[in-house]
Amino acid sequence: MRDEFDFIVVGAGSAGCVLANRLSASGRHSVLLLEAGGEDDDRWIHIPLGYGKHFSNPKVNWLYKSEADEKTGSRSIAQPRGKVLGGTSSINGTVYVRGQHEDYDEWRDLGNAGWGYADVLPYFRKAEDNQRWSNEYHGVGGPLCVSDPADTHPLCEAFFDAAETCGYSRNPDVNGATQAGFGYNQVTQRNGRRCSTAVGYLRPARRRANVSVATDAHATRILFSGRRATGIEYLRGGERQSARARNEVILAAGAFNSPQLLQLSGLGPATHLQALGIPVVADMPGVGANLQDHYNGRLVFESAEAFTLNDVVGSPLRKLREGLRYYLTRKGFLTMAASTATGFVATESGASRPDVQIGLVLYSTDKFGDTLHPFSGFSILVRLLRPESRGTVLVKNADPLDAPVIRPNYLSTPKDCDVLVAGMKIARRLVDADPMCRYVARAHEPAQPFANDDEWLQYLRARGGISFHPVGTCRMGSDAGAVVEERLRVRGIGGLRVVDASIMPMLVSGNTNAPTIMIAEKGADMILEDAEYSVKR
Asked: Based on C-alpha coordinates, what's the Rg of the chain?
């Protein structure tokens, strides 16, 4: 493999695969895509089964017992596998949600010209090949397949009816004119198969002679000439290697690894880096700050009917039938998103926009990632959409193979606590409504109602979880604390950009995969525009 390219992209995740495709499409530019993980596995990875999103890997094997299962008798729906091409888009719940129009208008109003809703909508549409809609909000013909769920479910229908009973409307398109309301999630699938960015974007790009992909290549630091990035140093096969970028180095390593690599390379809080013996290239306190994620509470119920994923996984015969159903029809649990049905609601009467997301999950477990309950069960997930709480990501030493220290600070503001508690109460009211309560045999967790908000909050702190939607650690902005400016160039540094979820100044009101793909689509256009301007100049 040659060691000089026009563009070097670090990270073959949701954003990096998009960049590799778009930057190489004209044939005029050479692209190196570095990925710390390995190749994907076509035998397994593209089965959607969103219920495995909380696992660290996508290899779906719940149709079969693993060796550990044979010994312990436990039931699992995933097996450890590691990083893969496509990143989160290859292992997530396949839910396609963009967030609210106001999210992007707020980005613009924070000093990021060109990032309002009207500016980003064309990039959502450009990415999309929507099965149902082709209109002002949705596109067709893009690399990302977006479809309606292959199946409905009686519990989902009861969920929608209960919402209407409680005064909430149905909404067939939460990515359209308004987000508020309840409906089935659209999914990044086609014909029952996951459409990751590795499939939709990278697979066609790899056929091009001007694209090189290096897997098992762990970036260790950015190389500089003065205050200009000139290349990347990385470890591959135990050997230290480097590659030179004629135009730009582009970080697309995500909200944890992009700030980690910047800090290891001398861009970050100077006092912290100096204490670790890392030479400082630029004092940038914002690198690793502003960490945000969606914090969730959940309610767990034993179902009065045996029609949940728990029942399928608990029965060898039903597992076999479900596998055959998927093979023959591309329907069933193997095609369903992590949260099959969803609703966006405002916790305060008269509020202009939703502040919590309530999702129905057709399985139950004591902890996401653990084995499923032996009884028929389902869960209601309540997501705090726009947290005020902020955390940090900081390297703990100069070793690029050590994970950074992540301090999320969830529920650290009164408003976050109040909104999530209110959302939990709304969710419980939905389940207690007539259309849904007939499917509830008993409440499993919490087993008894709480007497006051303090008890709800104590429960949330003890039993809440996250959505794996980290963003914000390389914040875009026009102020001195921002890491990148509106064209995603690292402030004060030449030849270096960040193009991934870490640039979000504020977390969007929903799942983050579709917005991350949009960011990469828009980022690619800006990179190519600047490259063209540089040539003409």
From this structure: 23
pTM: 0.93
Distances (CA, A) of 531 to 20, 29, 113, 526: 15, 10, 20, 9
Phi, psi of 507 (to 5 degrees): -65, 135
CA 353/CA 179 separation, integer angstroms: 8
Decide if 431 contacts 446 (C-beta within 8 A).
no
Q: Which residues of 56-83 are buried (b: 16+ CB within 10 A; e: fewer)?
A: ebbbbbbbebeeebeeeeebbbbbebeb
Nearest alpha-carbon partner for 343 in 198, 178, 479: 178
Angle between helices 513-536 and 117-127 (to 10 degrees): 100
Residue from 287, 276, 288 nearest 398 by CA? 276
CA 196 to mean position of chain CA atoms: 12
Gap between the Cα atoms of 257 and 240, Å rounded:
19
Residue type, 439: Y
301-334: per-residue pLDDT in tens?
A: 999 999 999 999 999 999 999 999 999 999 999 9
Catalytic residues: 469
CB atoms within 10 A of CB 510: 28
Of 34, 89, 39, 14, the residue nearest 211 (C-alpha): 34
Q: What single-letter amino acid sits at 374?
A: P
